[in-house]
């Protein structure tokens, strides 16, 4: 597996390629969660797992306001949501979703530009899937709705706020992850977002635990879901 | 694979054994849905798949009032529920669950007697899992709560009615299947039953479609779930 850092305009990114793919290879666009970036250990481990163990090409970029694109304004906005949540006792997820929505328009543009550029960076082409939870889904839902090259998506840890309208334009197969005891996100909001996807083929997988406690078995299962669909559309 | 019919008291059953297991082999107790029985094509196909492709021993019995144990009273009771549902426009699932609950106490006794007898019918022993949806879960939830030999269960297409109390005594790993557009069963009722299981390890998998439209991919995935847990407890 090779790991190549690139900068596209002001967007820092990484492209992982499996050893000697010998032609076209399915690509996973891997979007990180809130507060993470393309050097976060969790993202690196997952990218290496998808490329090394599953033979995908994988691309990641820093989301607006994250990693090398830090902006104090974003941190201030999130801090305000968390203070508000502490006062009201309501989960902060819907407020975080509104902040994330402010990043998503730029992020959708960034991902489409990245997808245009990846062939010149060494990816030989092939079917494209998307993987992003939490902030990754705030970006991934409108991106998957807008970008016809994406033919399957792993989404989740996100709710209806700011996303239901775009979800109604998503028609590709979707795996949607819910944490049953998510303290950031009301359960009803997550179920309503799953409901909104127009996809004929969509599966919700819910497991006990808080926002960050997605079990490893779901990560493996989601990788098999992408492999199945990207191979089918190859 | 061998397929052996037996009768235990007044309980007709079938035991499938994989070719030459050479010692202990994990057993799946396979409970059929409402209106089905141990000669139904769907049950036979699934049992042969579990034994032939996954190497499980599989046992099935006719539920009370089903197959060779038909009772006109049961059909009358279900017909009354369906007439009531047609009049009120409410889904019939909760009413069917009450009828099923009337069978479950007997069925739990039947399954425990079957489990006692299976070694004398050719099963060499091993870890035990349960698989039953709809009526199979009306029986499977109280059975799994009562029977310590069962160490993993595939359940679903069932709601809180008559089952929530037993679910709170289920502690083994559970895979729980929900059909998102189930016209028999209110979605809220199914989600509440998933919520009730005391199991630390439980996953809800929801897919679009009506009661009888569980996708094939979930059947394969549930078989892998059982294989993983029964091998672990072996």
UniProtKB/TrEMBL annotation, chains A, B:
<dbReference type="InterPro" id="IPR029058">
    <property type="entry name" value="AB_hydrolase_fold"/>
</dbReference>
<dbReference type="InterPro" id="IPR000073">
    <property type="entry name" value="AB_hydrolase_1"/>
</dbReference>
<keyword id="KW-0378">Hydrolase</keyword>
<protein>
    <submittedName>
        <fullName>Alpha/beta hydrolase</fullName>
    </submittedName>
</protein>
<dbReference type="GO" id="GO:0016787">
    <property type="term" value="F:hydrolase activity"/>
</dbReference>
<feature type="domain" description="AB hydrolase-1">
    <location>
        <begin position="28"/>
        <end position="209"/>
    </location>
</feature>
<dbReference type="Pfam" id="PF12697">
    <property type="entry name" value="Abhydrolase_6"/>
</dbReference>
């Amino acid at each position: 597996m090779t790991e190549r850092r690139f900068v596209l305009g002001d967007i820092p990114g990484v492209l992982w390629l499996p050893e000697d793919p010998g032609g076209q290879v399915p690509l996973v666009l891997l979007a990180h969660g809130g507060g993470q970036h393309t050097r976060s250990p969790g993202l690196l481990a997952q990218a290496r797992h998808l490329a090394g163990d599953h033979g995908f090409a994988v691309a990641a970029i820093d989301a607006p306001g994250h990693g090398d694109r830090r902006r104090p304004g974003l941190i201030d906005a999130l801090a305000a949501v968390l203070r508000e949540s502490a006062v009201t006792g309501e989960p902060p997820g819907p407020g975080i979703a509104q902040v994330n929505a402010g990043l998503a328009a730029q992020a959708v543009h960034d991902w489409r530009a990245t997808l245009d550029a990846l062939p010149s960076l060494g990816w030989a082409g092939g079917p494209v899937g998307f993987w992003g939870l939490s902030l990754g889904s705030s970006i991934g839902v409108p991106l998957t709705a807008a970008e016809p090259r994406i033919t399957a998506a792993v989404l989740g840890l996100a709710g209806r706020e700011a996303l239901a309208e775009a979800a109604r334009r998503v028609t590709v197969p979707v795996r949607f992850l819910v944490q049953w005891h998510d303290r950031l996100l009301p359960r009803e909001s997550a179920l309503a977002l799953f409901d909104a996807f127009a996809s004929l083929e969509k599966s919700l997988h819910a497991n006990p635990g808080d926002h960050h406690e997605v079990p490893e078995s779901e990560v493996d299962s989601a990788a098999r879901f992408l492999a199945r669909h990207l191979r089918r559309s190859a």
